[in-house]
Amino acid sequence: MTQISRNPWTGELLAEIAFTEAFELEQILQKAQQAFKNWHKHFAIYERLEPIEALALLLRQQRETLARLITQEMGKRYIESLAEIDKCAWLCEVYARHSIDWLEPEVIATEARKSFVQPLPLGVILLVMPWNFPFWQVIRAAIPAIIAGNSVLLKHASNVPLCAQALFTLFQEAGFKEGLFNVVFVPGNQVEKLVRHPHIRGVSLTGSEPAGRSVAQVAAGYFKKVVLELGGSDPFIVLEDADLNLALDTAIQSRFANAGQSCIAAKRFIIDKYHYADFCEALTERIQQLKMGDPMDPETDIAPLARAQHCDELHEQVSETLNSGAQLCCGGSKWSEHDGCYQPTLLANAMPGMKAFDEETFGPVATITKASDIQHAISLANSSHFGLGSTVFTQDSTTAQTIAENLRTGCTYINGLMRSDPRLPFGGTGNSGVGREMGRLGLLEFTNLKTIIHS
Ligand code: NAP
């Protein structure tokens, strides 16, 4: 059995990689367990940061080669692949700078001589990762786990095995001890077995709801810690007093970056009734200017989707939403010149109960809905079982703060592009997942927060 790597734009077969045999898996897990024991016992935190700094440097030095690989393997625009590699280096630099402080034991005054909470590592952490940001997703999960003293085992998405191999090589070149960063090639339906393995002490999964549910169920049976970063259908609210140009620019950037394949893309535009018609028209005009094409061409705005079957799934969501009464402003079908590209699409008058409103659309498709007032906007935004990110455009910071507090999401951006930042915790509520990545909270997720009392 093999994993196939194919260029989504050219169709070229890039590689065929054999799945890891059961006996090799066991050997890798033993090595990972040994590496964990050695790493947290014999290396102080400042020593653990040395390979992280080396990794940041390598990422910066090899950015063009690595970016080209991302584009070839999953089809995103080359310029976006470069930005992805730069962001990975930035995350390493942020953690290299802050981890000593962030892992400092928290002293709590009691009548004891000394009492404090000390974060200690858990063991081998399984990382189950998606293809949409094939370097960024891995780096943001692996680096904090390793700094905290754990070792990691990566099971990457089946369509990006070359990125997985490149990551393995990078970690080796950066000087990580053998067994700290491991890669296995197994199909998604074999992940359960890995979760059950006694050496696996925690699981971080970024991916779809079904994958998250399956991992959570198995992990719960063994009381293993999970961090789940799942799907999203982020609302983007524009109020009467908003800066409309800024909102329009941000809307385009948010929804159509990475050909719409982002968990934190704005997917549901909720516009105050005074601006609804104008916003709809202006957004349609801007969307129609987006150019589809070759991801290596700097003129391209929308590259192919990572897997051709995603176009069919997206089209079904669009068709069913139109059948239930939404209006097509633009797009609405595959691009006639390339089967793997979906036309950037806007669906107006979208309401709860319609597919593209209720489900995550993982491609260049947006919905737009009219809100009669602020309460209605909040209620529409919260009419989703997801709760990842949200965006609000208003000039009134008090109103913005109130709305932010009332939106059931893990993060709200006010007057700006919803994006992740390695200095800040990131994660969702509801069906968008549990736990946090990045920032200090992300560093503490795969630790035993141990209370120690010297009486
Ligand atoms: P996916 O199909 O769930 O795959 C993600 C990973 O899970 C892959 O490694 C996949 O392996 C594995 N997997 C699949 N089925 C599994 C199962 N039953 N049990 C355990 N693991 C399983 O998701 P995707 O299509 O690659 O990624 C898109 C999804 O990821 C979207 O929903 C997106 O919103 C979400 N995402 C969330 C975030 C966030 O931070 N919240 C960030 C990025 C993406 P195979 O490839 O071998 O099937």
Overview of the molecule:
This protein has 455 residues and is an alpha/beta fold. It folds into 2 domains: 2-231 and 430-454, 3-Layer(aba) Sandwich (Aldehyde Dehydrogenase, Chain A, domain 1), CATH 3.40.605; 234-385 and 389-414, Aldehyde Dehydrogenase, Chain A, domain 2, CATH 3.40.309.10. Helices cover 42% and strands 22% of the residues. The protein is built from 15 helices and 20 strands. The protein has helices at residues 22-42, 45-61, 63-74, 78-102, 136-147, 161-173, 191-196, 209-221, 244-256, 276-288, 308-323, 355-358, 374-381, 397-406, 439-444; strands spanning 2-6, 13-18, 106-107, 114-121, 124-128, 151-155, 181-184, 200-206, 225-229, 234-238, 266-272, 327-330, 334-335, 338-342, 345-348, 365-371, 389-393, 411-414, 433-434, 447-454. The strands form 5 sheets. It has a 7-stranded mixed beta sheet with strand order 12-15-16-11-10-17-18, with helices on both faces. Strands 7-6-5-8-9-19 form a 6-stranded mixed beta sheet, with helices on both faces. Strands 3-4-20 form a 3-stranded antiparallel beta sheet, with no helix packed on it. β13 (334-335) and β14 form a beta hairpin. It is globular and about 65 Å long. The protein starts with a strand and ends with a strand. It binds NADP nicotinamide-adenine-dinucleotide phosphate (NAP). Residues 128-132, 137, 155-158, 187-189, 191, 206-208, 211, 214-215, 229-232, 263, 360, 362, 388, 428, 432-433 line the site of NADP nicotinamide-adenine-dinucleotide phosphate.
